Amino acid sequence: MENLILPSTYLGPIPLFAAMLRNGKAQIEQYDHYVKQTFRNRCVIAGPNGTQTLTIPVEKPADHKAYMRDLRISDHGNWRHLHWNALESSYGKSPFFEYYADDLRPFYAERRWEFLFDFNEELTHTILNLLDIEVELTRTSAYSGADLHQWAEPSALRTLPFNPYYQVFAQRQGFLPHLSIADLLFNMGPEGVLVIGN
Prior knowledge:
Strand order of the largest sheet: 1-2-5
Mean pLDDT: 93
Distance between the termini: 18 Å
Strand content: 5-15%
Order of helices and strands: EHEEEHHHHEHHHH
Oligomer: single chain
Largest sheet: 3 strands, parallel
Number of strands: 5
Helix content: 25-40%
Low-confidence stretches: none
């Protein structure tokens, strides 16, 4: 087992979860510096008109080099309501949305997290449980210096292989690879682990 170090991500991309499944354990880097336009606070889902990016607004840190673990979520723009509506409109007709909605709705409707890292961590644990993936996840105790580029930046995913699976809008727009784990969860349910395990 390699020492797999991953960034904190918001409903991270499918390849990140595949790496966790293969390795069986991973450390989540909490001492890296926050970088804009990465999966740390955004995810990409498949909507009726193509891909859609959902971004969690964050409070601009006083120090431009704020640690990821110290980054606060902003309540600007009613994002929780907007994100849940986007997930519902994109996946409401998918085979497993109703099955998992009650597990995920609290992240958008009931509880508020102060820190992005804590929100991402709890959401990741929930997704792993729903997919029945056993992974030992821990936080880094100091800055690891690991290269997180391939896991955190959307452009880096284009080089990674993917396994096609059922998607609600595939007939209209073709298969869309490397989306958020939410896409796999809502479209494939428990069989999602078989897709990422190949």
